[in-house]
Design goal:
The structure holds two protein chains of two kinds.
Chain A lengths: L2 H23 L2 H27 L8 H18 L3 H11 L3 H4 L7 H26 L12 H27 L8 H14 L14 H6 L7 H8 L7 H28 L6
Helix pairs in contact in A: 1-6, 2-3, 2-6, 3-6, 3-10, 4-7, 7-10, 7-11
Chain B lengths: L2 H24 L1 H28 L6 H22 L1 H13 L2 H5 L5 H7 L8 H16 L6 H26 L11 H9 L11 H7 L10 H8 L7 H23 L6
Helix pairs in contact in B: 2-3, 3-7, 3-8, 3-11, 4-8, 8-9, 8-11, 8-12
Chain lengths: 271, 264
């Protein structure tokens, strides 16, 4: 890719970002309701786990770990999530992709701009809710003070977001071959919910599942970024960082392959 | 509502169910996948409860209570997601695009037509799974369930499902006042998840909220409690249905006054 192409893509992305943020600003209640829905699931988990521990439950992690994890999980889930598959599938099925194919920039720029702009707006709405949740629990929160850990956290977040975006492209692109991918998307969301650690921390899942949970990709989108803040030793994270990077590379390569193969089958409206 | 309207409404609803079944038979592979996904969603919902319960070993009564709660929750949410929530999820869009006009001109109650016409029969798979869980729990834990307790549970599960649907509808009807409130459906669906955990895990204040203002427990843990200990008078169940239904009817009327077709 030449410097000119990069500059042009960057310029289009900025324009799209501006456009997206202006549009999102019109739907303030939508944004607030969306963020409230995101925080409800970890809030329920937080209430029941703390309640169960107060009644004598004995999970393999401390109360502080669980509280910190479940306070952070909504922010991490939101920042690494992607919702492109449904729209991409619709664009391909209805032939709307044509408009992007003839433009001198990436066909995925609009989706990337939408993803980034919504995340900025969502973060602005979600953070006050998370702070409101964290204030009464501040005695039980254990966040690291080492800046290196926070850099590692941001890196893991970016990697997780890239991986989830790539998965979205893969699922959306399946429409090149199938008429409808809503059920596939539903299954992916299910796997994501269960295996990412968004509902239950992976560290409290049965010990026998450990090898599988460490190998599957979804945990590297939610549980692993939080683990970069909560692990006692930074050295313990090396293996996780390597596996996460491998999954990201694999997801990017697969997304590119599926997209290129799919485009060969595309024939405009009615494809 | 007079007798003729009631008859027309019943006929329309039966035809809507038939149409939904025909649609699912037409798109069989998708229907099977949605059926499996529906059961998968149930499993994803149950796992956190089972994992949590597995660590709560000090109280043996918690295991049957959790299993029954999950079973009742599966049945009630299966019914909700088959008949009510698909329509509620589309309501925001119906207001914004003026699609509600089509419901207003039909010779059936508008709220009924706007909300209850989107039926997803595959979601009933969850009811089957929930019933299996209930029977399995009763056999595994050797629970001596009396017919009266089963009746009380069924009545409370129905009343609870209606109460939660009206709570969900109250949130969705906010679409009459704000530009777009679609994610409120996700909020209602997420909050409903409280109902699959035994109530004693929640702090006292939240327990009260879960059976009153945001009655998620009424569609899961509360009817399950009645199965083990049918102590609460059944009289309260119709009262809850009437109060929650009246509140929704009031919000609906107020909202409809504000509605002015596609440009609202």
């Amino acid at each position: 890719m030449s410097a000119h192409t990069v500059r042009r893509n960057g310029s289009v992305l900025l324009s799209l970002l501006r456009q997206e943020i202006q549009m999102i600003a019109q739907y303030r209640w939508w944004m607030l309701a969306m963020q409230a829905s995101i925080i409800v699931v970890p809030l329920i988990s937080l209430l029941v786990w703390r309640g169960a521990m107060a009644h004598g439950a004995d999970p393999p992690v401390t109360r502080d770990y669980l509280t910190t994890y479940l306070v952070l999980v909504s922010v991490v889930t939101m920042l690494t999530s992607s919702w492109t598959a449904k729209f991409l599938a619709e664009n391909i099925r209805l032939g709307h992709l044509n408009a992007w194919l003839v433009r001198p920039c990436s066909t995925h720029l609009a989706a990337a701009a939408n993803n980034l702009a919504e995340k900025v707006a969502k973060l602005a709405t979600l953070l006050p809710l998370v702070v409101a949740l964290a204030v009464p629990l501040h005695r039980d929160l254990q966040l690291p003070t080492d800046p290196a850990r926070w850099v590692l956290f941001l890196w893991a977040l970016a990697m997780g977001a890239a991986m989830m975006f790539s998965f979205d492209i893969i699922v959306g692109s399946l429409v090149f071959w199938w008429d409808d991918v809503t059920a596939v998307e539903r299954f992916r969301q299910l796997a994501m919910l269960l295996l990412s650690g968004a509902v239950v921390p992976l560290s409290v899942m049965p010990a026998a599942w450990g090898p599988f949970l460490r190998g599957q990709p979804f945990g590297y989108a939610v549980a692993f970024p939080i683990q970069t803040l909560l692990a006692p030793q930074a050295a313990d994270l090396r293996g996780g960082l390597a596996v996460q990077a491998a999954w990201v590379l694999l997801a990017l390569a697969t997304a590119r392959l599926v997209w290129i193969r799919g485009l060969r089958r595309y024939s405009g409206a009615g494809a | 509502m007079n007798r003729r309207t009631l008859r027309v409404t019943a006929v329309v609803w039966i035809k809507l169910i038939r149409q939904a079944v025909m649609r699912d038979l037409q798109f069989r592979s998708q229907s099977w996948l949605h059926l499996m996904a529906s059961v998968g969603e149930l499993v994803v919902g149950i796992l956190p409860v089972l994992i949590l319960t597995s660590y709560a070993g000090s109280d043996p009564a918690i295991f049957p209570a959790s299993a029954l709660t999950v079973g009742v929750f599966a049945v009630t949410t299966g019914l909700m997601d088959c008949f009510v929530s698909p329509g509620l999820r589309r309501f925001d869009s119906a207001i914004r695009t003026g699609e509600l006009d089509l419901a207003l001109i039909r010779p059936v109650p508008t709220f009924f037509y706007a909300v209850l016409r989107w039926i997803q029969p595959t979601e009933l798979g969850r009811c089957l799974t929930g019933t299996t869980i209930l029977v399995g729990a009763a056999l595994t834990f050797d629970l001596d369930l009396k017919p009266a307790a089963i009746l009380v549970m069924i009545v409370w599960a129905f009343a609870g499902a209606v109460a939660y649907c009206t709570f969900w509808a109250d949130l969705t009807l906010l679409a009459f006042w704000v530009r777009s409130i679609e994610p409120v459906n996700e909020l209602a669906a997420a909050w409903r998840g409280c109902g699959q955990y035994p109530r004693q895990f929640f702090p006292r204040t939240v327990q009260v909220i879960l059976v009153s203002l945001a009655p998620a427990a009424l569609s899961g843990s509360y009817p399950a409690e009645q199965l083990l200990d049918p102590s609460v008078a059944l009289l309260f169940a119709p009262v809850i249905v009437i109060v929650s239904g009246s509140l929704t009817a009031l919000i609906w009327r107020l909202g409809l006054v504000r509605y002015n077709s596609a440009s609202s």
